[in-house]
TrEMBL record:
Cofactor(s) needed by this chain: Mn(2+); Zn(2+); Fe(2+)
Organism: Canna indica (Indian-shot)
Protein name: ribulose-phosphate 3-epimerase
One record GO biological process: purine nucleotide metabolic process
Gene3D superfamilies per record: Aldolase class I
Length: 186
């Protein structure tokens, strides 16, 4: 019982924090059964729900529908080995996703090396969908941001480069400026 109250108290604190901060909570689920997480993520206050195309090929329409019904923004992610063409139907369908996340490392853990060859996917997406939100995740920091931003990525996931920095705010500014500059040029 004590454990339940402990958990419930933490859950309430997180909900309270989210409502005060009004932060955009971008949730990327590297799971095989994303349908099971729509309800819990919505209850926890997620703003965006990104699932993997590799696991949802047969039921992505239903998944996107449920995500939207719960008031979240649907996004689709793809692993480095997955061809970019696999996400096109999800962007072009009747009930499309609103973001594509191009993984620039194998999903699993932080601190991996950025894969520049994934930028071909980003360029192809940006050319085809000029106003789509294109996210990149893995190995992003001051030394890799320019190549990602100039390829067309406008949403950046960065872990090690920010949390490992002496001045995290400065790193965030560098990343943001690179994306802003690239967006203004295009
Ligand atoms: O979770 C990840 C991979 O599954 C991400 O790549 C990670 O969160 C970002 O970390 P880093 O900036 O250290 O690459």
């Amino acid at each position: 019982m004590l454990q339940f109250y402990d958990f419930y108290e933490k859950y309430l604190s997180i909900c309270w924090l989210i409502s005060i901060l009004r932060a955009y909570l971008d949730c990327h689920l590297m799971v095989t059964n994303p349908l099971d997480y729509v309800e819990p993520l919505a209850k926890a206050g997620a703003s965006g729900f990104t699932f993997h195309v590799e696991v949802a090929k047969d039921y992505w329409q239903e998944l996107v529908h449920q995500i939207k019904m719960k008031g979240m923004r649907p996004g689709v992610a793809l692993k480095p080995g997955t061809p970019i063409e696999e996400v096109y139907p999800l962007v072009e369908g009747d009930n499309p996703v609103e973001l594509v996340l191009v993984m620039t490392v194998e999903p699993g853990f932080g601190g991996q090396k950025f894969m520049p060859e994934m930028m071909d996917k980003v360029r192809a997406l940006r050319k085809k969908y000029p106003s789509l939100d294109i996210e990149v995740d893995g190995g992003l920091g001051p030394s890799t941001i320019d190549v990602a931003a100039s390829a067309g990525a406008n949403c950046i996931v960065a872990g090690s480069s920010i949390f490992g920095a002496k001045e995290p705010a400065n790193v965030i500014s560098v990343l943001r400026k690179s994306v802003d500059d690239a967006q203004h040029k295009s």
